[in-house]
Structure formats: C-alpha cells, structure tokens
# Entry
Amino acid sequence: MTRFQLQNPMGITLGGRPAVACEITPEGVIAAATPAAGQPPVYAFEPLTAWTVNPALLETNLVDPAAVSAAIRSALSQVQPRVRSVTLVVPDAAVRVFVLDFDTLPVRQDEALPVLRFRLRKSVPFDVEHAGISYQVLSEGSARLETQWKVLAAIIPGPVLTEYEDAVRNAGYEPGAVLPASLAALSAISAGDSQQAELTVNMSTRSLTTSIVLGNDILLYRIVELPQEADAVQAEVQRSIAVAAAYFEDKLQVRPTRLLYSGMLPVRDFAEQLDDAEFAIGELVPRPEIGMVSAMGQHPLAGVTGALAGTN
# Structure
C-alpha cells in the first residue's frame, strides 16, 4: 500500500504534499486549503454525529461511511481546493508510530520495507504483511563510526487504511498522502525550522499523544488511550506528561519549562487539568483571526495546518 506516506513530515520539502488537507475526527471533518501560493490557509468544519467515527486498530473505524464522505465533501467544498488530491489526516488511535534504531538499513525502499515489516511483526496486534507502512530516516548510521540508523516508522492496518481512503474517494477526491494527526501537527513545528527542543501534546477525546521534537528529529512519540471518566482522564494526562517531562530531562539534561498544546479543550482548561505551574503552555498552532469559513468551535487546526506546511 504505497499511498500511506509520511511524506517527510519532519523535514518539509516544498510541494511535497497537496495544498489541501482534511482531518477525520470523531467530532467531524476539518478541511484546510491555501487559496493561492503565499496566502494563509482557509478552514472549514463539518460535524458528525457521535460514534460515526470510532478510531481503533482492530475494529471498524467508520460506522457510517456515507456520512463521513458527505462531511468530507461538504467541508472541502467550503475551502474551494484547487486540486482533487488531498492530504488525509487520520486519528492517532488508528495508527502506530515507532522510533526505531537499526545497525543498517537498505537505501532502496522496496528492500527496506520488508526489514521494517519483520521488525514490527511482534510490536503490533495486526497483520503487518497487508498493513500500510511508511518510514522516514531521521539519521543515517555509519559503520566506520559504529553509529545506528534512526528511523521514524508508521503502520496502519490495511482494512483501516482502506476505510479512510475509500471515504475520501467516495467524496470525489483522491488521498494523495496519509498522515496520523500528531505527526501532521508536528510538521507545523518543523516548518518553523526551530532547533529548540519542544515538548508537545496532542489531545483528542479518545487519546493523548506526547512528543519531544528537536529540529527534524523525534526523541519521543508516545500515545495512550484516554479513559471515559473525567477524573481518570485528568490523572492520565498528568501521568503521561510527567513521563514525557522525565524523558526530556533524561535525554537533554534539562527540565522542560514549556509545553506546546493542541486539542479539543481550550488552552486555559487544559492548563487547569494539567495543574502544573512549572509549565508555560502555548498553542502548537495558534488559532488564526481570519480564514474561518464555517463555525469551528474548539476543534484544533494543528493537524491540517501541519499537513499544509511546505506545500505550494
């Protein structure tokens, strides 16, 4: 399945992805497009009824595919894309992402993918032979210096990938690239060409993903499913960020003081839930004052914004 492509999320290549993106979430479809080269994106949102989308690895994700396709069609029509090919952003809970070390890795993709499938076979609870796999080399090894290859790999069950891609095609568009939500969001940081280590969190109603990014490198990428009880959610948020902060301090020998956040909760509400005065919390992608062509509510724009980073 060659369509599942990271498309170099941590090292943006100009024109590497379509200049239009849509993100499918349990709450609805978020669409974004750049009207013309050099112009800021415009955004639209089309809601879905509860449980129309159920992100998971081993279950049907799109309970009502026709409703999802209709929402994609409506949201994209409002941003008036210039092309039919779109970058599709899917929920983190439907994908598994790994940062892997290899002593060596073939340069050719057709030779590297079997190596990745073999490595991931015992790490995921589904068939890797028919899964969508994509990867990006974060750093190349050297036998002379006895260093390792560091690889970012993403894998999605074949039937799940087909569900999401079919929904886009049935809406009249073509999935030109597919990205998990948090990797798409991290592209927005990379586009800023920052060399400062950043601790980030992307929070949906179903899962929470913590990451540590340093330039074009990912030091940590960790996703946890959130419980349904409100008190348990707060405890899991605090625990997950404490784990990420400890890893940050261990790897970089300094404690993080800033956290970049994206999620369904307003920043102020998230800060109250985290309840840690040591963190200055900022938005991973600040909400723009213009460019909203439909009511957006609190739906985060980081995924589609990052998906558009580096496009023409």
The helical segments are 65-79, 109-120, 158-170, 181-191, 230-252, 267-274, 302-308. The chain has seven helices and 13 strands. The CA atoms of residues 69 and 171 lie 5 Å apart. The longest strand covers residues 217-225.
